[in-house]
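Regression test case RT-17, inverse folding.

Input:
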């Protein structure tokens, strides 16, 4: 093996966290504002000795994850923005590779937790308006049919809407934490104080800067572009050859069949290396890292069992997703399928990132008695994945284009932007 893995390890150590623990410069006129200086997200786990705080922490984490996954699914359902969903996954893999902990695979958890908190509280406060408005509407219908004058419930509904809407705006303007939605009088006082002292505009700019620094949409977009470009460099030739006979099954199977066999054979090492190569590319930030096969082969030699398990799970969970290609859903129905794609692909990508990170940190290769049997065992399994890709054009409404919509490496959507 070559000497690329130490270089990759040094490069990995030189890159800091990409999406969390960001230190943002604070304006002098808002330093004393405790609400604005509160950290986003659930923070560190309080520990089992603090059960109440631990339960609150767990609730915040579940709330953030419960909002993050639908957010990614919504992005994946929008053509073009699906690249951002892929970028978030790559950033999550990078976080896991750097720390070696799967729990760090949610780089946008701090943002999603705060936004999820706002969304949950908004729904709770809108519930009374919805119920009162429904009763007021029924009352107006009865009043028109019976001729009996209606009561002042409609006026009460209007007043309630104005009060709750104003309260929600004030709570969001003061930070959007749980406490902000439970202290309406204090929100009014704080907002009036900030406006009079001229602190409100710097506070808004600070929040916008913090959110932009943590979410990093451009960074995620660049990660996705590099990953898609690198994956296509590896997948194009094997995929084209693999589809030579499956895209025209009624012709003479001589030469097309031989080319498909060659494409299937080439797909085996690509399927073995490309998941780790994408993590390596995202971690180093260099596009050419997608071609540094020696680094990946060294990682596989160090942690062959972990690599085999992660690879099997990656493809075993990705293969059933090809059933969605039998009949392509309409474009406006993608949002019904993308949550399933995110839930299936996201955990396996985190597992691949964990394999990459642990492989770099391990100093020695595994025993040959472990390495070679594992690699031999994986060859027919990866060959089976190639065979399934070969049959995709035969069952898919998209035809040969479906072979290029590889969910394990490209966009996490039922049908990508290649159509």
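Golden output:
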């Amino acid at each position: 093996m070559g000497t690329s893995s130490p270089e990759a390890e040094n490069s990995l150590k030189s890159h800091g966290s990409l999406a969390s623990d960001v230190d943002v410069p604070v304006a002098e006129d808002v330093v004393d504002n405790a609400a604005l200086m509160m950290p986003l997200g659930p923070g560190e786990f309080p520990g089992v000795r603090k059960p109440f705080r631990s339960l609150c922490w767990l609730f915040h984490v579940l709330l953030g994850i419960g909002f993050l996954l639908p957010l990614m699914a919504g992005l994946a359902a929008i053509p073009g923005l699906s690249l951002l969903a892929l970028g978030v996954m790559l950033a999550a893999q990078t976080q896991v590779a750097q720390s070696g902990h799967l729990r760090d695979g949610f780089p946008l958890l701090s943002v999603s937790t705060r936004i999820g908190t706002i969304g949950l509280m908004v729904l709770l406060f809108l519930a009374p308006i919805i119920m009162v408005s429904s009763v007021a509407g029924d009352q107006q219908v009865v009043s028109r049919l019976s001729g009996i004058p209606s009561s002042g419930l409609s006026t009460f509904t209007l007043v309630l809407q104005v009060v709750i809407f104003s309260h929600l705006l004030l709570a969001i303007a003061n930070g959007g934490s749980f406490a902000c939605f439970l202290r309406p009088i204090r929100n009014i006082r704080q907002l009036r104080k900030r406006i009079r002292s001229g602190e409100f505009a710097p506070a808004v700019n600070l929040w916008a800067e913090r959110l932009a620094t943590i979410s990093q949409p451009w960074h995620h977009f660049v990660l996705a572009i590099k990953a898609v470009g690198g994956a296509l460099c590896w997948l194009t030739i094997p995929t084209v050859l693999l589809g030579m006979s499956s895209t025209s099954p009624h012709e003479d199977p001589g030469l097309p069949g031989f080319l498909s066999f060659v494409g299937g054979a080439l797909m085996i090492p690509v399927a073995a290396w490309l998941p780790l190569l994408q993590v390596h590319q995202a971690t180093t930030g260099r596009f050419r890292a997608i071609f540094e096969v020696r680094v990946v082969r060294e990682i596989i030699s160090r942690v062959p069992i972990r690599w085999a398990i992660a690879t099997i799970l990656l493809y075993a969970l990705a293969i059933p997703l090809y059933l969605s290609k039998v009949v392509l859903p309409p474009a406006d129905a993608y949002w019904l399928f993308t949550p399933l794609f995110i839930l299936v692909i996201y955990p396996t990508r985190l597992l691949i990132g964990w394999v990459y990170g642990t492989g770099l940190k391990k100093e020695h290769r595994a025993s040959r008695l472990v390495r070679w049997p594992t690699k031999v065992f994986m060859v027919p399994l990866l060959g089976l994945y190639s065979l399934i890709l070969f049959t995709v054009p035969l069952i898919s409404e998209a035809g040969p284009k479906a072979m290029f919509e590889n969910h394990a490496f490209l966009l996490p959507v039922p049908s990508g932007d290649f159509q």
